[in-house]
Amino acid sequence: MADSSRRILHGLQTALLVVFFLLAAVTGTVSSGMNRSAFAGDVKVIVIDPGHGGHDHGVTGPGGIVEKQVMLTLARSIGGKLPPSFKVHLTRTGDYHIDIKYRTSVANNRGADLFVSLHAGGSHSSAVSVWTIYHDRPKAFPIYDQKRAQAPFPWDQLQQRHIQSSARLAERIGERLEKGAAGQAVDVMGAPLPVLSGANMPAVLIETGCLTHPPTARKFANTDYINAVAGDIASGIVDFFEK
Prior knowledge:
The chain is of the alpha/beta class. Helix content is 43%, strand content 16%.
């Protein structure tokens, strides 16, 4: 009787193990080598960060146009213009404030392929409107040692392993904007920016002209113009993956 019970118990344990491994294979929880690309095919995850929000209005331009709202509208439009093979997440979806480090952590936690932070510039001179795309450049550059690529890195230095690809992303988007909605030179430069330094993927910050420049402010008050800028940025993102 005891031997019979043990055989039955062993059979139940074996059956449970088979069920466990079948479920694990479906959900992707068994293989430690499983990554997002193996699970999701060619889907690219893009995190877009509309700057400012809540009590932080950003730049306010003529007529009361505010950076925080323009950038949220622009972020939504970019998401709508990327191909279906891109999965887009926004760091904020409404008018509320979030911390800089949280913005970057959204991209890291989502396992994003790209992080794009959106801002508008401002100037003491209403005659100035400069378009700039920034990639990270640490104050002490370069700190990152390629030989230590697998070593643990402080959170605020994660971007260092992606600096070259981030610069390339900035160039691709800049090329599209120059020929398109910006209609002027788009500067690409490195700077030590906290919102980029902790991103563990190619990451850029785009300043879409100056809202303190009345002609620029009038353009961004028009949804069609925002959509045109969004289309150029989306095309630059696609170019980055294709070239």
